[in-house]
């Protein structure tokens, strides 16, 4: 079978994310993979789990790939492994999904919210410096930085890692949206001390349920993570050596992910085809997303910036009338959300870029199975709605 996806026709309604088109392409393989698991019956830590982890390492170049139950657990397992505790400050962007900061609060540590850059939507290194000073002034210990590879593009790791080194901090990449991307020749999964990703169905590499993984080149950290995901197990089954959790990936999800990983390279190419076509078609009518020099995105979202909240609302409603779905990621930065309001921000108050982006951004349909004619239809509709 050709690795090129069968392309949708223009007459089909345009999906924001088309999981059905992907499934149609590999349905036979998925059915066979699930059947194999049903036949051997090892639903927990069956051989597909290790096989998938091997595939992940081969794909991204990380020495260790440790699969787990979801992306939130992936982040949380690392904080547990690094013994993050009350009094520690962990620096996270405010313009992200809640899980990035949630796990910091899980372990009783203090998330410090950092502003983002308006062109890439990722952590602003200058704001990070400010946040570190603010944390120190509050008596917190700067411990770790969790940049997010928002919408599929790696954060500015050269700048962030230099700041981390100055303060003897580690970097965990929250690449729930960015697995498959690259930063100046480095693949996501090999950047920072450790990387967490998610296989939630709508992520670029998604399963048919919950799933996640942690990547690292650090042998000791990998050992601790493997122990933590199975209740802190030691070498003897009934002598647990640390407090862990049940954080395993199901065998069935691993079996599905093996088949999805096999077409992921082609899908990333197709995501980039769609993004390039959007960029070319829309650059002169709205602010299109910027990918940094020497970096690549996997386009978890294709996100435009409108001139105002009013313009965004008007464009989105006109697109809806034409049957074109759009979404806002994210309408409220974390530092303004009820559960997170009491935590520190880099400025001690407002994070102007996060707050502005929350008012102005919206995302267009983005998936590898959008054919050029459909992309052109979306472009024309956006142009007519501005
Ligand atoms: C999806 C996501 C997560 C959480 O992943 P789950 O698998 O849903 O737990 C964490 N961080 C970011 C940035 C995400 O987009």
Descriptive overview:
- The chain has helices at 19-40, 47-60, 71-81, 99-106, 125-137, 157-166, 219-228, 251-282, 309-321, 352-360, 372-385; strands at 64-68, 88-93, 110-114, 141-145, 170-174, 182-183, 186-187, 194-198, 212-216, 295-296, 302-305, 361-364.
- The protein is of the alpha/beta class and 386 residues long.
- A seven-stranded mixed beta sheet has the order 1-9-8-5-4-2-3, sandwiched between helices. Strands 7-6-10 form a three-stranded antiparallel beta sheet, with no helix packed on it. It has a two-stranded antiparallel ribbon with strand order 11-12.
- The protein is globular and about 65 Å long.
- It starts with 18 loop residues before the first helix and ends with a helix.
Summary, kept brief:
The chain has 386 residues and is of the alpha/beta class. The protein has helices spanning 19-40, 47-60, 71-81, 99-106, 125-137, 157-166, 219-228, 251-282, 309-321, 352-360, 372-385, and strands spanning 64-68, 88-93, 110-114, 141-145, 170-174, 182-183, 186-187, 194-198, 212-216, 295-296, 302-305, 361-364.
What is the radius of gyration computed over CA atoms, rounded to a whole number of angstroms? Answer: 21 Å
For the biggest sheet, the summary is: 7 strands, mixed
How many helices? The count is: 11
Low-confidence stretches: 1-10
Beta-strand segment tally? 12
Secondary structure: helix percent: 40-55%
């Amino acid at each position: 079978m050709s690795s090129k996806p069968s392309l949708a026709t223009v007459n089909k309604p345009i999906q924001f994310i088309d999981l059905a088109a992907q499934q149609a392409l590999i349905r036979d393989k998925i059915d066979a993979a699930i059947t194999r698991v049903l036949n051997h019956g090892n639903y927990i830590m069956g051989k597909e789990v290790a096989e998938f982890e091997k595939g992940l390492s081969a794909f991204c170049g990380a020495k260790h790939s440790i699969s787990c139950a979801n992306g939130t657990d992936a982040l949380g397992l690392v904080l547990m492994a690094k013994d993050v505790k009350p009094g520690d400050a962990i620096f996270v962007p405010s313009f992200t999904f809640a899980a990035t900061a949630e796990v910091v609060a899980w372990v009783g540590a203090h998330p410090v919210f950092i502003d983002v850059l308006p062109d890439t939507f990722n952590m602003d290194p200058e704001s990070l410096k400010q946040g570190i000073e603010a944390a120190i002034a509050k008596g917190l210990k700067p411990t770790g930085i969790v940049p997010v590879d928002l919408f599929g593009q790696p954060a500015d790791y050269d700048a962030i890692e230099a700041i981390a080194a100055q303060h003897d901090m580690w970097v965990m990449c929250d690449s729930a949206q960015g697995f498959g991307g690259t930063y100046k020749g480095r693949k996501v999964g090999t950047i920072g001390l450790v990387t967490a990703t998610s296989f939630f169905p709508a992520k670029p590499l998604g399963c048919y349920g919950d799933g996640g993984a942690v990547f690292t080149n650090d042998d000791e950290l990998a050992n601790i993570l493997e122990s933590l995901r199975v209740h802190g197990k030691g070498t003897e089954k009934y002598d647990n050596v640390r407090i862990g959790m049940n954080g395993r990936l199901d065998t069935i999800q691993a079996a599905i992910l093996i088949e999805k990983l096999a077409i992921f390279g082609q899908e990333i190419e197709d995501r980039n085809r769609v993004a390039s076509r959007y960029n070319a078609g829309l650059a002169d009518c709205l602010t299109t997303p910027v990918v940094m020099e020497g970096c690549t995105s996997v386009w978890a979202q294709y996100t435009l910036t409108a001139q105002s909240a009013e313009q965004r609302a008007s464009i989105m409603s006109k697109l809806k009338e034409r049957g074109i779905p759009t979404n806002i990621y994210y309408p409220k930065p974390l530092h303004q959300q009820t559960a997170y309001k009491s935590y520190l921000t880099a400025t001690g108050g407002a994070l102007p870029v996060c707050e502005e982006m929350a008012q102005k951004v919206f995302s267009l349909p983005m998936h590898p199975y959008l054919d050029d004619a459909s992309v052109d239809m979306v472009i024309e509709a956006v142009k007519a709605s501005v």
